[in-house]
């Protein structure tokens, strides 16, 4: 059976992916693989507030809690995928990265990925 480290490594090896970070809902890193310029602990610390506000928005809009968010920034994209009540996956990708296949696999395998955490 694959481990969290295997999951993080497989995501990080995708073309254009600069970071794959599994973190707790408290913002502490569980496992990560990043390019040298990315500080996993620093970026992970910001994710819980994004998830919290997205959950609040989801409640206000009658959409429920956040499952996945894609944030597009001028120098790349961030994917936040809530795996369970305790864990979140963060993926940083270059602007030219095709996220379609990654998003499909995350959605299709969310329960299996969550079981690893």
Number of helices: 5
Strand order of the largest sheet: 2-1-5-4-3
Task: Profile the largest sheet.
Answer: 5 strands, antiparallel
Separation of the first and last Cα atoms: 12 Å
What average pLDDT do the residues reach? 92
What percent of residues adopt helix (DSSP H or I)? 25-40%
Describe this structure in words.
- With 117 residues, this protein is α+β, with helices and mostly antiparallel strands.
- The chain has one domain (4-116): Beta-Lactamase (2-Layer Sandwich), CATH 3.30.450.30.
- Helices cover 38% and strands 29% of the residues.
- It is built from five helices and five strands; from the N terminus they run αββααβββαα.
- It has helices at residues 4-12, 40-44, 47-60, 100-108, 110-116; strands at residues 17-24, 29-34, 68-73, 76-82, 87-93.
- The chain has a five-stranded antiparallel β-sheet with strand order 2-1-5-4-3, with helices on both faces.
- A hairpin with a 4-residue loop joins β4 and β5 (87-93).
- The two termini are 12 Å apart.
- The mean pLDDT is 92.
């Amino acid at each position: 059976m694959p481990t969290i480290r295997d999951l993080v490594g497989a995501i990080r090896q995708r073309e254009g992916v600069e970071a794959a970070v599994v973190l707790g809902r408290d913002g502490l890193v569980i496992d990560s693989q990043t390019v040298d310029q990315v500080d996993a602990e620093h970026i992970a610390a910001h994710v819980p507030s994004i998830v919290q506000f997205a959950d609040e928005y989801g409640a206000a809009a009658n959409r429920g809690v956040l499952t996945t968010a894609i944030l597009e920034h001028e120098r790349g994209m961030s994917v936040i995928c809530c795996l369970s009540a305790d864990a979140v996956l963060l993926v940083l990708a270059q602007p030219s990265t095709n996220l379609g296949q990654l998003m499909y696999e995350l959605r299709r395998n969310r329960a299996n990925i969550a079981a690893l955490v």
